[in-house]
Amino acid sequence: MLNTLRYQYLAIIWAVIVLILCDLPISNNTKIPVFEGFDKLVHTGFFFVLTVLLFYGKIRQQLSYTYRTITILKILLITTFLGAAIEMLQYYIFTYRSAEWWDFFADMTGVGMGIFSYIFLHRIRFNEKLL
Q: Taking Cα atoms as reference points, which of 19, 5, 8, 36 lies closest to residue 107?
């Protein structure tokens, strides 16, 4: 288990950053140009990067780009749990933030994009060993 965590340190750091940023209060006097749906775009980007980092750690751990269905299922489970946990925290604890099903949907869209990227981009390198 510790061996697995050793390779996932970037994903763990990113998950903590996402957790903190998703639970910070939003100031109404922000000077950043925000459009409707910007929050959903941010959630999608956060979880896309998290999924890519989880795959990167797994690739480094096994020293190959092998395509394994169990890895995809584990990453899907981890990211689903984190997305649901963020929304539950926003609903029950950080009540100044709004918990929305659309945020969770945006999270899972980012995860889907990350999984698709892994399958699509690394299909060529199936069984190629890393140096």
A: 19
